[in-house]
Structure formats: structure tokens, C-alpha cells
Write a structure and sequence with these properties.
single chain; mainly beta; six-stranded antiparallel β-sheet; four-stranded antiparallel β-sheet; elongated
Length: about 200
């Protein structure tokens, strides 16, 4: 808790025709202004800055229902997800599903975590959801993975700091399950990105 502010500086009035105002000395202008500087510094360090640190930058949540597009690798279509109104599911009788969707976050924010909710009843299937990106004008630069999660219901922080740079990077989510038992359902209900 921040302590109550108690002023440290008290101005002693000069008296006309009695006090001689000067720059130096114990009662000089320099001394008094340095006392004011110390007062403002103490006010900033002990009162204002601690309150600003407590208030901090608000944490925001972007919660997305997956609306996934299917795609092809090397010209060959990969199995996509079955799209429902508020979720996606691995089609029955296949061992994998792949999809992606566009993501827009405010420029300059820091991504704190990625959370995925759903269900994976396959004991062999690995479900991976990732925030990826590519340079806007350079597809040859390849995909960069910013944060990835393989656990349902557990927020996963990035391995290193991630700042959104909309001027130069386009961002998207990839959602894939591989190695699943074909008869076992795998579903993704939502993806949540936490940022500030």
C-alpha cells in the first residue's frame, strides 16, 4: 500500500526590505529550488509511480471460435476440420485434420498466452494450436511460430517476448491434429489470446 503523502518542503517567506534574496547560501534561491526538486522527486518515486505500477497496462482477451479454412501442402489437399457453428471437429474415420484462420491483434501489444479449449478423446493424437505469421510482402521468408499450445485448458506463454507488428507481419492461427485414432473425436471449442 502506498503511504499517505506528507509534504517535506515548506517555504519560509522573505520579508521586504529585510531579507536579501540571493542565489547561494542556506536561504538562497538555489537551496530552495533544490529542496523543491527533492520534494517533487520524492512525490514521484514514493507516491505517483507506485500507483501507476499498480494500475499498469490492462490485460485484454481475444476469444475466438475457430472458423477454419482447409488448405493444400505441395498442391495436395490435407484433411480439413468439420465446421460447426461454435466449434470444429476432426472428421470421423481420419487420423488428422488441419486448418487455419486469420487473426488481428492491436499493433504493438505483447502476447502473454494462448489458451485452447476443446476435447481430445484420442490417446495417440496430438492437437496443436499455434499463432503463426509471415512477412507481409515476402512469402519466401517462411512461417514464424510465435506461441504454440498442445494442452487443452492450460494457458501457454510464448517462449520469448512476442510484440505484434502489423506493419510488417500478417498473423494467423493454425489448428491441427495428427496421429489420432480415426474413431476417436477431437474437438476445438475456442482459442483465446491474452495480451497487453
Amino acid at each position: 500500500m502506498t503511504e499517505r503523502y506528507v509534504p517535506q518542503f515548506s517555504h519560509k517567506d522573505w520579508i521586504d526590505n529585510q531579507d536579501r534574496v540571493q542565489a547561494g547560501g542556506e536561504n538562497g534561491l538555489n537551496s530552495r529550488f533544490h529542496q523543491l526538486e527533492a520534494e517533487f522527486l520524492g512525490l514521484a518515486e514514493n507516491q505517483i509511480n507506485p500507483m501507476l505500477d499498480v494500475l499498469g497496462t490492462p490485460t485484454r482477451h481475444l476469444t475466438l471460435v475457430p472458423a477454419l479454412h482447409s488448405y493444400a501442402k505441395d498442391g495436395i489437399a490435407v484433411p480439413g476440420w468439420e465446421q460447426a457453428v461454435d466449434m470444429v471437429a476432426k472428421p470421423a474415420n481420419v487420423a488428422e485434420a488441419h486448418g487455419f484462420m486469420n487473426v488481428v491483434l492491436p499493433d504493438g501489444v505483447q502476447v502473454l498466452s494462448l489458451l485452447v479449449t476443446g476435447s481430445n478423446q484420442s490417446s495417440t493424437g496430438t492437437l496443436t494450436v499455434s499463432l503463426d505469421g509471415r512477412e507481409i510482402g515476402n512469402n519466401d521468408a517462411g512461417t514464424k511460430r510465435f506461441v504454440s499450445s498442445t494442452k487443452l485448458g492450460i494457458p501457454t506463454p510464448p517462449a520469448e517476448e512476442v510484440r505484434i507488428e502489423n506493419e510488417s507481419i500478417r498473423y494467423y492461427l493454425t489448428v491441427e491434429v495428427v496421429g489420432a485414432e480415426p474413431a476417436k473425436p477431437v474437438k476445438v471449442f475456442c482459442v483465446q489470446l491474452v495480451y497487453q
